[in-house]
Amino acid sequence: MPMERVQPISDPRSSSTVLSIECLKGSSKADEWTGDFLQTGDIVEELRIGNPGSRRAGSSGSTLIFTAPFKNGRSGVQKVLHDAFKKKETSILARVRRGADELAELQACIVPNESAGKKQYMLRSIADPNYTVGFMDRTESDCLELQASRSARMVTALSSTRLQDGYVAYPWERRMQECLSVPFSSCFLSVLLLPKASDQVASRYNDLEDTLARANAWLNASQASGVPIVFMNIQTESLLTKISGETASSTVNAGSLSDLSNLANVSLYGFEDYHGVDIGVVKAVRLWYAPLGGELAIEIKLKEGDTKLGFAISRTEEGFIFISSVIDGDENAPSTRSGLANLYKEATNASRLLLVSRVGNQKVLPWMVSSTGAIRCFDTVSVSQKLSLHRHAKVPILLHVLLWDRGLSIPSGGNRFRAPTPGALPLPPEVQLASRPNDNQIQPLTPEVPTGSREVSDGAEVRLERDTAGELSFRFHDFSLSSNWWLQS
């Protein structure tokens, strides 16, 4: 008949000393304060090492049972744990006494306690690997006092427990491929405005209020011309530059907080070091905006025999590329087959520009205003050349356009876009809303197009501007849409 091998360890010399539990690390849910887990001060009554289900004595699967009192206390138990760990008998059941008659037990495994030194071991809970306990010699009266002070120890543990941080791996490549309407490209739109230089050598700049006014004027003019965008946020960005002497309009003494008040509205300030003022900080303004209805991808597929794309592009004074004309009545034109012609008519009826935000997944929006006041944007001639090369190579063209209505989609026959329409960003409270008569819906107020602004319609003559000197000059040649070779060829 299988029997258990019981090895009581007695120590008559230390009858007043008992082996008690020392909580080393709390559980992930602080379950050690419930009656199910062991607690600091619990008196150890029994240890069972080995397979609890096995009753075979004299084999590696036998169960060793040690009961109180334990010979040599903690040091004797550590030797027992060391021998069991060497034999790979790491399963252990600890039974403890709490008070006069309350009992508890913990199913755990024996693991090294590296923080306590060599040949030192502790018990790790099977139910919660975060929870570990060790052993300590205490008098029985001390154990009872600890058990009675449980509430006070919980309050102490609450005040001393600190939240821990960590790192978690994230599948960035997969998320950027699957969760973005344009893979590996954001939908966030912004333009950076550098402060205007007040002299030719760019040693001094206009103040911050001037830069903010330029950003405000750029946004208002864009909306008035029919660009379907809405203001989202604005922020200042600090750009480092090298200055010397009296270049900075304000100099900050790092040891004086009173100097900080001088920086409220300056665009350039410097810091002093041992060699004088030679580190400058330029305060630029970044304007964040968003399309009213999000972006829509349109794929223009080309066929043999296509001699023209059927549309022309232009650029606004603010640097936006837009569809300025579409051939009407040609059902065979790529612009008609893709649905671009129908969408262009919808934009015209809504007094909006059909703005091109991407060509082949590359953003073609203005991105910076230089210190000379010139807008860094894309050249219409280079864009048209690339579109023409698509036609010659018979490679489909992928355009993204900005929508002005969240519910708008390409009309019948034009549902040829590769990516789904990205969700529109929520409108900020600054956007004015108006309700339709006898209707509960609300919609953004359509900005009025001022007299003399360009209208988007078939056959309209739009005067384009072409880059000739980078950001230093914005005086360009004028020509009409009828002469645009990528529309006719």
TrEMBL record:
Bias-annotated ranges (Polar residues): 435-444
Region annotation Disordered: where it falls in the sequence: 434-459
UniProt-recorded name of the protein: Uncharacterized protein
PANTHER family hit by this protein: OS02G0717600 PROTEIN
Superkingdom of this protein's organism: Eukaryota
